[in-house]
Specification:
single chain; 223 residues; alpha/beta; TIM Barrel; 8-stranded parallel β-barrel; 9 helices; globular; disordered N terminus
Length: 223
């Protein structure tokens, strides 16, 4: 990507939490610096981890922030139906690997579009780009997992950056989001790979000062 495109990279903090109190604490930490945060929804079936995503409690939080949902769950539609009337959810990302067949994927994309959600299709590190190309004209975001989904703090797989470059060359106008393993040491490389949205959790929440880390990131991706 050119320097000009790098300036347009969006950062999205990810909330991988295990309780309502942890969710609120992390949300409050990033609220002054962002307009959108990602809620990591894990059901201990699709991935071996269970996170907090209790809608009845999340609805009680007064915030101007909007949400995107990253559904690492075995039955995405079931969860989408619970969340679909919550106006603060603007984007829903579901996994290619969680779906039984192509027809179900096209049907779910159609279902989300009808309800005015932005649609993200997530692919695990081992999934090849050519496996999902038939869906790309119908989605808003190609969501690349930089690590095996389920846990924060993992190391980014370098092959994912090649996948991002390949996707950007083929689809110059597509939103490409990466999530997993992004840190201050590799974010400049990540930004040059062709992605225009970077989601991260550990990088923000293990920092002593969120404002400082946001400024450091901005400096690194504009270099």
């Amino acid at each position: 990507m050119s320097k000009e495109n790098n300036k347009n990279i969006k950062l999205v903090p990810t909330l991988l939490t295990h309780s309502f109190s942890e969710f609120k604490e992390k949300l409050n930490l990033v609220a002054p610096y962002f307009k959108l945060v990602q809620i990591d929804c894990m059901d201990n079936k699709f991935v071996k981890n269970k996170t907090f995503y209790d809608l009845s409690k999340i609805k009680t939080i007064r915030t101007y922030l909007n949400y995107e949902l990253h559904l690492m769950v075995a039955e995405p539609l079931k969860l989408i139906k619970k969340w679909q009337n919550f106006k603060k959810v603007k984007k829903i990302i579901f996994h290619y690997e969680a779906m039984k067949n192509d027809e179900d994927i096209f049907d779910l994309i159609k279902y989300l579009k009808k309800r005015k959600f932005k649609v993200g299709l997530a692919i695990n590190p081992e999934t090849k780009l050519n496996q999902v190309e038939k869906f790309i004209p119908k989605i808003d975001v190609l969501f690349l997992l930089g690590v095996k989904p389920g846990w924060g703090g993992q190391v980014l797989r370098p092959s994912i950056l090649n996948k991002a470059k390949q996707a950007r060359q083929k689809y110059p106008k597509l939103d490409i989001e990466i999530d997993g393993g992004v840190n201050l040491n590799n974010i400049a490389k990540v930004a040059k790979s062709g992605v225009n949205i970077i989601a991260a959790g550990t990088m923000f929440f293990e920092a002593e000062n969120v404002r400082k880390i946001v400024n450091q990131i901005k400096n690194k991706i504009k270099d």
